[in-house]
Amino acid sequence: MKTVIIEDEKPAARKLERLIGLFPDLELVATLNSVEDGLEWFQNNSHPDLIFSDIVLGDGLSFDIFEKVPTKSFMIYTTAFDQYTLKAFKLNSIDYLLKPIMEEDLEKAINKFKSFLPSESSNNSLEIKSLIKEEKQKLSRILVKIGYNLKIVQTNEVSCFYSENKIVYLQTKERNYPTDFTLDELQEVLDEKKFFRVNRQFMINSNFIKNIHTSPYYKVEMEFQPEEEITVSRDRVKDFKDWLSN
Predict the structure, then answer these.
(1) Whole-model pTM?
(2) Does 79 fall in a domain?
(3) N or C: which terminus of the chain has fewer CB atoms within 10 Å of its end residue's CB?
(4) Are 80 and 32 in contact (CB under 8 A)?
(5) Which residues are recorded with the post-translational modification 4-aspartylphosphate (predicted)?
(6) What is the pLDDT of residues 125-167, one digit of tens each?
């Protein structure tokens, strides 16, 4: 099965090449180092069965390649950050490995890939998409930008997410930070046991609920939140109470 690596860090690329070499049924046909290299290669070569791809490259995101050159290849993303989980699984991803990659984790991902391959007994494209959807991981950390610096925020440190002027912010004990997500996207990748969308503007973390007022309407006080009060939409009250009791 033909395989391609997309990785801009040479040590990481060499390690992945060595690990892939441990699997005799995988044939590495190319190692690409940038979005530019990727666009050129995929426009001029037959696409492989499987792609191992870092997400953040020196000249952009690897997503940029496949948004311009669609592929039916299966993807295993390799990255130091998991904030791109949702977008990854929209682009044929069957797994999402956080660096540093261990041989055991790689073997599990490859076995998962093999399980998605067509067989005489099963697996059509709809079945594969269903399997991939079930494999979605939950977001555990988010990369935010502060001026010219980057910061990793663990989602278990986030009191709430809220939308303001078309930007979604996360609130921690220290301050708020703008994110690249929408609240709809966060609903798909956050742990639903911890996070709940109380209305169109706010999503809260149960670990930071300070108080809940029930009259004349449901209002939630969080340990850390913006000045605006957080109310539960009327059509969400029942779901909210169910969520609190689970």
Answers:
(1) 0.53
(2) yes
(3) C
(4) no
(5) 54
(6) 444 444 444 445 577 888 888 877 778 899 999 999 999 998 9
Residue at 242: amino acid letter: D
Asked if 100 and 148 sit in the same domain, the reply is no
**Do 81 and 31 share a structural domain?**
yes
Residue 224, domain extent: 141-245
Taking all residues of the chain, what is their mean pLDDT, rounded to a whole number? 85
What pLDDT does residue 131 have?
45
Q: Are residues 26 and 104 in the same domain?
A: yes
CA 131 → CA 112, 209, 235, distances in Å?
10, 35, 32
Return the number of other C-beta atoms located less than 10 Å from residue 114's C-beta.
15
110 and 146 in a common domain: no
Residue 83: give its domain's CATH number.
3.40.50.2300
* Strand bridging mode 149-154 / 230-231: unpaired
105 and 37: one domain?
yes
Question: Whole-angstrom Cα distance, residue 91 to residue 154?
Answer: 25
Instruction: Note if the bond before 118 is cis, omega within 30 degrees.
Output: no
CATH number at 153 reads 2.40.50.1020
How far is residue 5's CA from residue 53's CA, in Å, rounded to a whole number? 6
Largest Cα–Cα separation, the chain: 67
Kindly report, residue by residue over 82-111, the tens digit of the pLDDT: 555 545 454 556 777 777 788 888 888 888
Closest CA to 84 of 103, 111, 48, 57: 57
